[in-house]
Amino acid sequence: MDEKAVSNAPSGHMTEERRMIRDSARDFAMKEVFPVANELDPIQGDIPMSLRQKLADMGYFGILTPEDLGGLGLGCFEYCLVTEELSRAWMSVGSIIRQGNRVPRAQFMSDEQWRELSRKASRGEFLGALAMSEPQTGSDISGIKTRAVRDGSDWVITGNKCWCTFADGADYITVIARTNQGEEDRRHVGLTAFFLEKERGKFPKGLSGSPLPKIGYFGWKTWELAFDGVRVPAGAIIGEEGKAFYDRVHGLETARAHTAARAIGLAQGALEDATKYALEREQFGRPIAHFQALRFKIANMATEVEAARQLLHFVCSEIDTGRRCDKEASMAKYFATEMAERVTSEAIQIHGGAGYTKHHQVERYWRDARLTKIFEGTSEIQQQIISDRILGRHRDPVAKPKPRPGAEG
User: Fold this and answer.
1) What is the per-residue pLDDT across 327-358, written as a single tens digit (0 to 9) for each?
2) Which is catalytic among the residues 32, 376, 380, 408?
3) DSSP string, 371-389
4) Is 359 exposed, middle or buried (0-12, 13-18, 19+ CB in 10 A)?
5) DSSP H or E stretch at residue 176
6) Is 280 a catalytic residue?
7) Where are the domains of the chain?
8) pTM higher than 0.70 for the full model?
9) CA of 328: how far to CAs of 257, 293, 311, 319, 335, in Å?
10) Architecture (CATH level 2) of domain 128-242
11) What is the CA radius of gyration of the chain?
């Protein structure tokens, strides 16, 4: 991959400082992340602690964290710039930085306790995971069946979760459980978030799990979890009891922008590799880059990558100025992830048979790009959100409406 082959197209959103942040992240990704990814992804190895420490030294676990809490005090725009560059090398690394940004505050935490945990998170010393999706519940979290029942001074959590990435390596898990049945036609009422602190590399009493056999997104494990009477103190509630649905919806714009950035990073890597290969690979006595069919493929790929990037930059700017942009964030996530699958697939086509081997990185980009269409709300969920904002929400006269904020990623 050519680390210099990145768009420098003019953008009203890009400042000199942001270009420096982007270029620094690209240099770090290509020198520190890319070689590790090439070594460990083929054997499904985990992101090593040494690389996690380097991410912490760069400040990437605290991009969104205020400076007085040990972070960089930057915005969604810078967060996504860094994410894109890291994902060009290994999407799992572009993802893991989110586990340190913004520690949730449980009721039992004093101001100083929360501030200290935030400082630790910014140093990569206190990272989280999210247990939200369930075997029968993905994007529609209103269908969550995991229960939390009050027992004296504790809450007792029972149920099953899946798609909990980093459950083993995290220092705490945010668990979404049902604390009351809610109204029959408003099942999102009564969901509560709990802060489950744990020892890194282990599960607490009553919690067991097994890694899912994924086809990609290597670098860390994604777990199925069984909660069998797991106890947390009464003050472990995050936010208000019964209001977790609304809290999750509140942060979706940044989460979907982050996923769009990951997808763009994968597509950019595939574009660069395909361009380099087309210039080097010869057939019929000349480089295949001389053939119009391949030239037009690369032209289309580059156009789609840049279009997704510019849409994302607009969304990030809206988020950072505090303007509501749920429709546009869904558009960015939808367009970027669909684009990433197309572009990475075309990159494999340009590589020919070589692209279907692990000798080249395009197969990794393709496998990981396919996932971006699923997590953080599927493409179909994004289409539902976008169409609802344009046409108004469709009310089925028979079926009761179900809010769909989207699954974790």
Assistant:
1) 999 999 999 999 999 999 999 999 999 999 99
2) 376
3) HHTTTTS-HHHHHHHHHHH
4) exposed
5) strand 172-178
6) no
7) 16-122, 128-242, 248-391
8) yes
9) 10, 33, 8, 10, 10
10) Beta Barrel (2.40)
11) 22
